[in-house]
Amino acid sequence: QQIRHPEKTPGERLEYKKQITSIEYMRFKEQRDETKKSIKKQRTYFVQGNDLFIIDVILNIPEPVAFLRVDLINHETQVAIPEFIKVIKEVTGDESYSTYAFASQQ
Description:
By secondary structure, this protein is an alpha+beta fold. It is built from two helices and three strands, in the order H-E-E-E-H. It has a three-stranded antiparallel sheet with strand order 1-2-3, with no helix packed on it.
């Protein structure tokens, strides 16, 4: 479940996460949108300094795509992208790079 904060800055999301039971999972699964395909992600976590980085690779699309994300407690924190990461394009806020958009592709 994701809750968006009305005063968020561009690219910032406030997320609320909770663990669900197997019964809740089955209920959610029954409500899935059959017009969307499931997305397979390979997720890798690493820490540099005080920052938690997440690399998501979407595997089941014609050309796999990797995204770098950083989870921050304070959005004013300056983040240094690790030197071994090559940023090709900034896609923060670009809905065409959302999981929903990839799931909608045929």
